[in-house]
Amino acid sequence: MKIERYDISLDFDFKNLKYNGYEKILLETQDVKLDAMNFEIQRVKMNGAETKFQYDGKVLKIDGVNENKKTLEIWFSKEVETTQLTGIYKARYDGDDKYIISTQFEATHAREFIPCVDKPEYKAVFKLDVKVDKGLKVISNMEAKVSYVEDKVLYSFDETPRMSTYLLYLGIGNFEEIEDNSRQPKIIVATLPGKSCKGKFAIEVARKTIEFYEKYFDIKYQLPKEHLITVPEFAFGAMENWGAITFRETALLADDNSSTQQKIRVSEVVAHELAHQWFGDLVTMKWWDDLWLNESFATFMSHKAVNETFPEWKMWESFLTGETAPALMKDSLTTTHPIEAHVESESDIEQMFDDISYGKGASVLRMIEAYLGQEKFREGISKYLKKFSFSNATGNDLWDSLSEASGENLKPIMDSWIKQEGYPLVVVQLIRNQGKFRLALRQDRFLLNGKNDEKTYAIPITYRLNGNNESVLMRERTLEKELNAYPSQLIANVDKTGFYRVLYEDLDLALRTEKSSMEKWGLLNDYFHFLIAGKIDLETYKKVLAYSARQKSTLVSNEIADQMRILFAISPSKYGDLVRDTLRETIKLWSKPKGRLEKMAYSNVASTLAIADEGFSLGLAKLFDDYDKLDGDIKQPVAIAYAVTGEEDSFINLLDKLRKSNLDEEKLRIINSMLSFKKDFLVSLTLGLFYTGEIKKQDIVRILTRASSNPYSRIAVWTWLKLNIDKIREIYKGTGIFGRVLSDSLPLLGIGIEDEVTNFFQMKQIKEAERGIKAGIEMLHALSKLA
């Protein structure tokens, strides 16, 4: 089958949330079967003649004619979705009576908008005409000519390039816009009324990012404009619709009053979605087996682009904490999957949007770039994009392009990482025998449950020996190198570019070796997970932790804050003193923070210390009286301290501040603090804001994960989740998000009630979240051993 084009005309009844549609499809095929979910199909014509059709609510089958080339016309009507956040749906703001209509089609939801062949391989040209009530604005992938037809406004959009159905977009509502039309492409930010001024930073980032990509890929951006659109209720963080990218408000809006973390997030998400305009939109995977091609590459390139624009933000350090670390954790579970995994059902597709497809894939690309060199890697990517522009490709096509550019056959190496799950633990030993020394490396698969698995990988090993960087491709389980003498300095996995962990037989040698911040982070992150896996004892971990707490590195301090939060959540009584002592030592490094990253490190350390140290919290909470005047980086720990040391009156004050806030960034900051109360009923009241709409449907992911780390309200949060699980499940129906919610929240939420949590989900049988539930429970059992 081949689809040439879709000509689509829609007439919207915005108030009653429905529309009438006419669609003309040019295609080449014998049998016609279209994906079409929950339409009222009124008429069908084939090549100008009325024709019979069969429709079961999911698939539209049309009686064939002998000609292979067909012109298919369909008249239909459809209601806009009001409970879920996929397909074409109502996105509320400021109560139920204010809303926009927006779309979210990835992976298989375009069929809920128009009858179509809803598979990425079937690219087509789209021509869209939309009639709406006067006063409403319509946004789609292309620019539009606006005219008036009777009492309505007609938006006639230019035809798109050939693209996949999941990249089509339609938004209708009272949008407010600002734009930069100084040069091509025109960049436009569209927001809810009163918020567009906070889109100026995103426009600045987008302009610089597009220019960077055009130079890096040696391919111009293909469309005349790029819309960046905030959607008030949005299940995903952002979506790369070609020329009309959608975002959560917290992923697009920032200004000088925003925290450093918020500005970095906006920059990274904007750059991620813009990378997709080439890698995903211009060239698209043939099938969802290769989803990682889209997401891993966009993740990798976004950090490269932001690092170029804002070098002071040290984005490759952010990459380690935001991408590599979560991927290493999830990939150390038996429930993991290969980066390239065979998928068939819609639920399988949706569950592929995880830390493996994003973070692991991106980390492997970083490892391969380090192995090949930056210029050869760039040349291979450019060759790939030029060869497959406006069409589809597979992972093998990318390896071929990279191999051609580098002169090295990468497929055997890449198959080791892409087609098999997990990653190696590399044990570093120094062996002395008859006066001679050898560096000995051994690889085993690293599993968080501590079990042995002799799976091997083709590892681009890097190490620094006595100040000299060296590298070797380790294909077998063991590898040895002769040395002249026992080294004075040795560190493996230089700048943590490799997707593997390193365990040293001589830990003291590694500790006294000069290391970059990324290498210090790698040592601390590895040894924390060795503790969980039972590879080392608590005293060995404390040794690495004490060393790390003295290192003036924002990257290391942020990691300490994260690890201490987990340990305190597992058992305040067992780890409280260690957490407090470590964080008190760490926060001394940032008592007078200079620059945005140091302020962010102080904020992260102070936020965790506020939870664990009541004395510290009492002092910090005094700043809450001047909360609105505080620096954006200081607000979070102050609000947490205010909640930790307060009771009902503090709840009332925080709730009042929440209700007066107009920005999601500020609202989430306040909600995070309200989930830190030591009184469990106050945490339950906070979760109850979900019923009033003051916690958005889209944010329940972050809220549950945050609430699960409060050891004082664990049972209350678990009870709330059980009562509301079906409602949350319905919101995220048709996506893999619910599985990710449970994967991230169950490991801490279930501490002390492991059997109850396990039995509950065995009985509940939530198929669309099955992988996430299994991962969450496996991680729960691993952490429980530390309790």
From TrEMBL:
Cofactor note (record): Binds 1 zinc ion per subunit.
Aminopeptidase N-like N-terminal domain segment(s): 4-167
Name of the protein described by the UniProt record: Aminopeptidase
Sequence ranges assigned to domain Peptidase M1 membrane alanine aminopeptidase in this UniProt record: 201-417
Assigned keywords, A-Z: Aminopeptidase, Hydrolase, Metal-binding, Metalloprotease, Protease, Zinc
Cofactor(s) essential for the protein: Zn(2+)
Lineage: Archaea, Thermoproteota, Thermoprotei, Sulfolobales, Sulfolobaceae
Active site: 273
Keyword Ribonucleoprotein applies: no
